[in-house]
Design a protein that fits this description.
Shape: flat
Oligomer: single chain
Order of helices and strands: HEHEH
Structural class: alpha+beta
Radius of gyration: 13 Å
């Protein structure tokens, strides 16, 4: 998962990302401002990136996002193998 870490100081690193990204954003995150997370998503250099936005605070990531992350990893790791 990418996204729950915020934006400050990560712009240059985000631009260098070239692998597929699944970015998770909690819409009402009290630790990472929505605008910063969206700006970080925009900076990602990956040609394949997906944004998953969910209502709720920082620690309220829905359980189904863990399943989605597992499928994302399996899909991309198996494709590369």
């Amino acid at each position: 998962m990418f996204g729950l870490t915020g934006h400050a100081g990560q712009t240059a690193a985000a631009r260098r990302v070239r692998v597929p990204v699944e970015f998770v954003l909690q819409w009402d995150d009290e630790l990472v401002p929505r605008e910063g997370a969206l700006a970080l998503f925009d900076e990602l250099g990956s040609r394949e990136k997906t944004l998953h936005a969910n209502p709720g605070g920082h620690l309220e990531v829905p359980d189904f996002e863990l399943d989605a992350s597992g499928r994302f990893l399996a899909r991309h790791l198996l494709r590369r193998a």
